[in-house]
C-alpha cells in the first residue's frame, strides 16, 4: 500500500501541476478557470462515491452482510469530503466569475443539500448503538438520499441558472481536456486509496465493537451463580 500511495501522490501532483501551470489560460476567464482542474474532479468523485454508498446500502439489504454496510458508510465519508471540497472550490470560483461567493442557484443548492443529507446520514449512524439495527436503518436512508444525486447532475439541464452546463470536450482546447481527464483519474486514485484505508479501519472498529459486546472470559470473569442441592 505504501508504494501505491506514493504512486498515487506522484500522479496527483503531476496532474495538478499540469493543469495549474502548463495548459494555456482560458480566452474568456484567463487563469481563473484553472480551478476547474480541482473543482470538477472533486464534484465527479463525490457523485461516484455516493453511488458506491448506494450500492453498499442496496447490497446490505439484499445480503445482510456487514461488509456491504461498511462499504456504504466508508464510501459516503469519502464522497462527503469531495462534496465539501467541490462546494468550497465552487464558491472560490464563483466570486471572480459571478461576483458573489454564494447564490441560490439550482446546482449549488442541490449540491449543498446533498452535503447536509450525507452529513445527517453519518450522524444517524452514531446515534444507533445496535449494529444490526444501525445497518438496516442506515441502508434505507442511504437508498433514499441518493435520489438527490441525479437531481444534482440534471439541475443545470432542467433549470436555467448561473451555473454552466457540463463542459463539451469539443469546445475546449485539447490540452485542457487531457489535463481535466488526468486530474479526474488522479482524484480517483487518491479517493480509492482513502476508501481502502477507511475500510480497513472500519473492519478493525467492527471487530473491536464485537469483542466489547461479548461477555468477559478468564479467571477474573464473574461466574454464573451455582444452584444449591439439598438432601
Give an overview of the whole structure.
- There is one protein chain.
- The chain is mainly α and 231 residues long.
- It has one domain (8-24, 33-159, 173-205).
- The protein has helices at 2-22, 36-63, 66-98, 106-127, 131-145, 148-158, 174-213.
- Helix 2 (36-63) packs antiparallel against helix 3, helix 3 (66-98) packs parallel to helix 5 and helix 4 runs antiparallel to helix 5.
- The longest helix has 40 residues, at 174-213.
Short description:
This protein is 74% helix and 0% strand. It is mainly α.
Number of domains: 1
- The number of helical segments is 7
**Which bin fits the share of residues in helices?**
over 70%
Largest sheet: none
Q: Tell me the overall shape.
A: globular
Write down the Rg: 23 Å
Strand segment count: 0
**Terminal residue distance:** 68 Å
- The H/E string reads HHHHHHH
Residue stretches low in confidence (pLDDT < 50, at least 5 long) are none
Strand content: under 5%
Q: What structural class do the secondary elements suggest?
A: mainly alpha
Mean pLDDT: 88
Amino acid at each position: 500500500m505504501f508504494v501505491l500511495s506514493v504512486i498515487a501522490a506522484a500522479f496527483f501532483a503531476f496532474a495538478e501541476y499540469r493543469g495549474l501551470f502548463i495548459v494555456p489560460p482560458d480566452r474568456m476567464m484567463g487563469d481563473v478557470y484553472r480551478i476547474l482542474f480541482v473543482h470538477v474532479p472533486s464534484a465527479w468523485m463525490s457523485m461516484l462515491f455516493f453511488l458506491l454508498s448506494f450500492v453498499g446500502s442496496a447490497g446490505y439489504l439484499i445480503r445482510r452482510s456487514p461488509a456491504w454496510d461498511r462499504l456504504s458508510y466508508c464510501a459516503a465519508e469519502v464522497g462527503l469530503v469531495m462534496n465539501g471540497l467541490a462546494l468550497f472550490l465552487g464558491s472560490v470560483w464563483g466570486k471572480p466569475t459571478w461576483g458573489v461567493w454564494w447564490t441560490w442557484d439550482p446546482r449549488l443548492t442541490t449540491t449543498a443539500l446533498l452535503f447536509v443529507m450525507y452529513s445527517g446520514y453519518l450522524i444517524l449512524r452514531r446515534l444507533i448503538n445496535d449494529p444490526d439495527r444501525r445497518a438496516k436503518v442506515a441502508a434505507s436512508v442511504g437508498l433514499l438520499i441518493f435520489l438527490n444525486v441525479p437531481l444534482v447532475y440534471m439541475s443545470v439541464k432542467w433549470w436555467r441558472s448561473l451555473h454552466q452546463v457540463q463542459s463539451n470536450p469539443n469546445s475546449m482546447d485539447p490540452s485542457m481536456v487531457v489535463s481535466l481527464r488526468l486530474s479526474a483519474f488522479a482524484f480517483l486514485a487518491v479517493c480509492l486509496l482513502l476508501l481502502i484505508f477507511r475500510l480497513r479501519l472500519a473492519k478493525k472498529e467492527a471487530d473491536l465493537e464485537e469483542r466489547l459486546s461479548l461477555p468477559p472470559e478468564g479467571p477474573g470473569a464473574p461466574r454464573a451463580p451455582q444452584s444449591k442441592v439439598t438432601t
